[in-house]
Amino acid sequence: xxxxxxxxxxxxxxxxxxxxxxxxxxxxxxxxxxxIVEILIPTEPELSHRNGKRTVIQKKLFPGYxxxxxxxxxxxxxxxxxxxxxxxxxxxxxxxxxxxxxEVKRIMKNLEVSQEVPKxxxxxxxxxxxxxxxxxDYTGKIEEVNxxxxxxxVMINIFGRDTPVELEFTGVxxx
Length: 175
Description:
Helix content: 10-25%
Mean pLDDT: 88
Number of strands: 13
Distance between the termini: 50 Å
Strand order of the largest sheet: 12-11-10-9-13
Radius of gyration: 22 Å
Structural class: alpha+beta
Order of helices and strands: EHEEEEHEEEHEEEEE
CATH topology of the largest domain: Alpha-Beta Plaits
CATH architecture of the largest domain: 2-Layer Sandwich
CATH class of the largest domain: Alpha Beta
């Protein structure tokens, strides 16, 4: 039995539903824990600000894909392909291609590291809209991100001139 990791393409935003369906159908057919061993949806924490509140959300690293560790027999292939929400495999020449071991190890290592520190949702050069304070509804370009203080320096066009304004993460949203 050769257990390998495969990338299964799903409908976008249906990754969790598809993984649960595969698990339930695998259990019903007696394939779970023998031929299908593990399903992974790689995510990383990201700081997000909604309605002025700071929250940590789980952002998918590979939207539209789940990773499945399995022995790809004919029965398992049919089960996966016939699951609602599955659009196919990562494949070459019409045959599913397993992921290389070094790729899976790198993904797992990155997942461990990213779980420790949430990723900042703002990057230099992005356009944001101010949602609170005296500059409400103005848009500007991020010039500087200070993650420790949770502040942004945004260039806002006021009276025809770009003016640097320091704003909190909670005071802006991505455009």
